Amino acid sequence: MSQPNPRSHATRKSLAVSAQSEEFFRRQKTSANDLPSPETFTLNVVRGILEVLAGSREVEQLSRWLSEEVYRTVAVRANLAARARSARGVVGPRTTHLIRSVHLFSPADHVVEATVTASTRVRTRAIALRLEGLDGRWRVTSLGVL
């Protein structure tokens, strides 16, 4: 009769504990009911993103609410806009963005997709973003600025 291998039992147990801890530390979905109003959040984050692109705000101020991919995209676009302004010798404008419309759609409990129309005196922009409730806050996980 063969003896059970104590190492294989310990290995299985450590793998199970590892899987549980990995799940515990993974981003946790948060229900929209447990989060602030998605419309208010959308208005504030869109204003922040437009200010970053205009050069009147640092992208680091938005890092808490943007996924890594969106953060990198906004940082690159802000850098390109700053270089273009510098090449033309134009100072970053301190314009006020007027939010014309906000449309929200929720395909799942912890997800909100929004489209926003914002304008200044000289330009109107359409912004599409996806918000996900993660770790107790809204985070922008996808962004498109036209």
Mean pLDDT: 87
Amount of beta strand:
25-35%
Strand order of the largest sheet: 1-2-3-4
Helix content: 25-40%
The ordered string of helix (H) and strand (E) elements is HHHEEEE
Structure overview:
With 146 residues, the protein is α+β, with helices and mostly antiparallel strands. The protein is built from three helices and four strands, in the order αααββββ. It has helices spanning 6-25, 38-54, 68-88; strands at 98-108, 111-119, 124-134, 137-145. α2 (38-54) runs parallel beside α3. It is flat and about 70 Å long. It starts with 5 loop residues before the first helix and ends with a strand.
In short:
The chain has 146 residues and is an alpha+beta fold.
Helices and strands, with pairings:
Elements: H1 6-25, H2 38-54, H3 68-88, E1 98-108, E2 111-119, E3 124-134, E4 137-145
Antiparallel strand pairs: 1-2, 2-3, 3-4
